[in-house]
Amino acid sequence: MNLCVVGVGYVGLVAATCLAESGNDVVAVDSDAGKIERLQAGEIPIYEPGLEELVGRNLREGRLRFSTGLAEAVPSAEVIFIAVGTPPGPNGAADLSAVFAVADEIGRRLSGYKLVVLKSTVPVGTAEKVEAIIRESAGEAFGRAPEFEVASNPEFMKEGAAIDDFMRPDRVVVGVASDRAAAILRELYAPLVRTEKPILVMDRRSAEMTKYVSNAMLAAKISFINEMANLCERLDADIAAVRRGIGFDSRIGFQFLFPGIGYGGSCFPKDVDALIRLGTEHNYQARILAAVQAVNADQKRALVDKVRGHFQNRLQGKTLALWGLAFKPQTDDMREAPAQEILRELLALGARFRVHDPVAMAEAKKLFGESLTYCDNPYQALEGASALLIATEWNEFRRPNFRRIQELLLEPVIFDGRNLYEPEVMARWGFTYYSIGRRPVNEP
Ligand code: NAD
User: Which residue's C-alpha comes closest to atom 14 of ligand 1?
Assistant: First the structure.
């Protein structure tokens, strides 16, 4: 099929590349000319495992092209995906200006039947609005709108595992207003669901809502286990034991129930806010969602409170090491990352930071400039530091050389925001070890 994907960010780039990989001819369009130039030269603007190789192959084999203009892409495309950003506006509602601008432009360039597919995460009712915009702009351009339809096809990929998620989805959700649109999307996704995973066809509003509910549920699980961890700390119980105690219950399970320092990234915070906002616009106060966000905001500060307590607020001039800057492993994305909160708060109290992250250092430099010392490896970050803080659960931090950590730190103190180590093991090494929701173990 001839496809056009508009918006070449995390979602658009992965979707365009994977759809090309499954045999389609794809033109990926973005208004950022610099980004398109770099992509045309085979340079990948984001860190996503496996993506560079896949983009290179599909570019070489001519199934994938990058462009700044819809003019060349729309006429030949049978399906046009809209995958532009929908960042939070000032009141928490999703800012749809990019989606609407693209819809307007598509309308002006329609020729023959097109299926326009909303892949961006958008509020319930957006497909209808996009349809109205295209109809109006096509009407202005042609006198009468050529045939087209708008479908919703929310994306559930995870940054860091995006290719696998797109190529082998748990399910594909498709919101349509006609059998014709459903048939096109079934055909397009058929190569990706050969392991009997379902293509769930529903109405467009339910598809739009499914994406928000999915992210809200995952965010709620994280805030729930974090709240339980906070209670465990105060009640002298151990969240690790409790987690096992509940996780083997098949109604509960283990997934997404890892205590830590909260969720970040470009999706959960903004999508939960957008759903709360949709509720208020329809006279409903989403109290659970508000609590999910409030617990998360506090949780991002959990390590800060422990650091302040340990050093009795005397942080002026103190050097600290921080491992992990990205909001989660396998990505360089620092949007809403707990590390940002930790750095801002402790820098404001006079602390100095030596930081390391396997891939997010360039992002950190954009945000923090010269106010941090950037270290090429984790051990270099420890030199002259009074404690180690851990904000991201990168695999390379899971089995470090504890002897080396002890030798390099001025004081043997670790604040672990991701519960990477066993308190008993840390006690044996002689560390003062703070983690989330677990009992500290004294040195033997
Ligand atoms: P992003 O910010 O990484 O990329 C958006 C891209 O759209 C940018 O390259 C930008 O230049 C381009 N753009 C903006 N306006 C444009 C216009 N008028 N014409 C052409 N291009 C334009 O965003 P993202 O993370 O890829 O997210 C895109 C959408 O997908 C959002 O709605 C997001 O909520 C949703 N989503 C994201 C993820 C994720 O993991 N990042 C997962 C699922 C869904």
Answer: 84
| Ligand 1 pocket, residue 48 CB under 6 Å | no
- Ligand 1 center to 145 CA (angstroms): 27
Q: Are residues 166 and 309 in the same domain?
A: no
Is residue 313 located within the same domain as residue 405? yes
Provide the CATH number for the domain around residue 395: 3.40.50.720
Measured CA to CA, the distance from residue 327 to residue 316 in angstroms comes to 26
- Report the distance separating Cα 280 and Cα 282, nearest Å: 5
pLDDT at 429: 95
- 46 CA closest ligand 1 atom index: 3
Question: Is 133 close to ligand 1, i.e. is its CB under 6 Å away?
Answer: no
Residues serving a catalytic function are 267
CB of 120 shorter than 6 A to ligand 1: yes
Which atom of ligand 1 is closest in space to residue 86's alpha carbon?
32
pLDDT digits 0-9 by tens, 209-225:
999 999 999 999 999 99
Determine, yes or no, domain membership for 444: no
Q: Read off the pLDDT of residues 311-321 as tens digits, 9 standing for 90 and up.
A: 999 999 999 99
The alpha-helical segments, DSSP class H, found in 47-125 are 51-60, 70-73, 97-108
Tens of pLDDT, residue by residue over 377-431, are 999 999 999 999 999 999 999 999 999 999 999 999 999 999 999 999 999 999 9
* Residue the block writes with tokens 């509960």: 252
pLDDT attached to residue 442? 60
Residue 442 lies in a domain: no
pTM exceeds 0.90 for this model: yes
Give the three-class secondary structure for 278: helix
Both 291 and 313 in one domain: the answer is: no
Question: Which of 159, 179, 202 is the last residue in one of the domains?
Answer: 202
pLDDT attached to residue 195: 85
The DSSP line for 337-388 is -HHHHHHHHHHHTT-EEEEE-SS-HHHHHHHHGGGSEE-SSHHHHHTT-S-E
Separation of 139 CA from ligand 1 center, angstroms? 28
Instruction: State how many domains the chain has.
Output: 3
Domain that holds residue 251: 212-298
Indicate if 64 and 128 belong to the same structural domain: yes
